[in-house]
Amino acid sequence: MVDATLIAAPSPTKNDRGQRDLEVHQTKKGNQWHFGMKAHIGVDADSGLVHTVTTTSAHAHDITQAAALLHGQEQQVFADSRYRGVHKREEVQAQHPQVNGHIAMIPGQRRVMDKNRPIIGLKEQLEQIKACIRAKVEHL
To answer: Does the global pTM surpass 0.85?
Structure first.
């Protein structure tokens, strides 16, 4: 499983040399701005143990670290909707061609589904199963 989380930092004031930290940036999540960095985490689905951590500035997209979070032994990868299209990235195709990705549906698309239709009900159950598996990394 892979996920990213924001690490808060103090406001972008200058340091004692009169410069700002170039690795710390702001990003918008929902309607709220956050300043800091981002921790990208790779977790074993069976044990829940963290096997990989990388950090980037907060404005880096989650998908950019996907290949770095995989250690090579994975067959299945579970991730939230910010990792859509990860299977198309060159570095993932080159380094991890055997991995089968289970990426969550965009929350807005999930909300507007007609859950009374049988096929949509099955899709909703599949999304709930993905969410249960991803819960191990979400709680970190």
So the answer is: no
Question: What's the burial of 86, exposed, middle or buried (CB within 10 Å: 0-12/13-18/19+)?
Answer: buried
Return the amino acid letter for 139. H
Distance separating alpha carbons of residues 140 and 136, to the nearest angstrom: 7
For 68-110, what is each residue's pLDDT tens digit? Answer: 999 888 889 999 999 999 999 999 999 999 899 999 999 899 9
Separation CA 40–CA 60 (nearest Å) = 10
Which among 47, 52, 72, 74 is positioned nearest to 4, based on CA atoms?
52
In the chain the first and final C-alpha atoms are separated, in Å, by 11
In this structure, the number of other CB atoms found within 10 A of the CB of residue 70 comes to 19
